[in-house]
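Give me the fold.
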Amino acid sequence: MSWAVVPGADESAPNPGGAGPILDLADVRKVYATGAAQVEALRGVSLTVDPGEYVAVMGPSGSGKSTLMHILGCLDIPSEGSYRLAGEDVGAMTEAQLADVRNRRIGFVFQQFNLLPSLSAWRNVELPLCYAGVPRQERRARAIQALERVGLADRVDHRPGELSGGQQQRVAVARALVTDPALLLADEPTGNLDSHSTADVLGLFAELHVQGRTIVLITHEHDVAARAGRVVHILDGQVAEDEPAAAVSR
């Protein structure tokens, strides 16, 4: 798999300046069995995302956008079609390889912050490093560095209940960044935030994009999608439109 360095990242991160797309889906279909019936969540999705792109995925409830995100994040696999991540066929990966990709190669940010309330900010951020077997002293240093990167240097010892919603989401972003992935997948990351915190988090994503991170963001909000460079519209399990973000805000 081709991975290289972005500013502030290590050599395990996807290459934002490398050749070829970082995400490449070809005629991907996903079918779920619900009793005797089958539900086709994705119906022949083909999509490429180049290194360094900032892409928003939009669609109504039930359109298949969350299923698409799960496949992009190696949380699920296609029923048919192919998915290549940085040139490597995800379908050929073992469970151990998929787990390694999820923990080390891709950063996830969700609508629910998914922070452990009993742990301080830095201890929440270090969790992916715990799973990766990184020594304790290094874990703390890298967690604090990630929190500094998202503007929370003065909140490292605060627990989630002592932080605002926007600050909690910044902790979640720091946790996604602590393994230094160049690929960031965000599923409705501003869904639980007020307008001020939404602007704050989107500003952070813009900074990360400038630094070379590839970002794929799922949202149902046009204003949020307009902050990306490109918007992919999903409808009934298919790509309905793929356009520059400027076209969304018209």
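Residues 1-17 have pLDDT under 50 and may be disordered.
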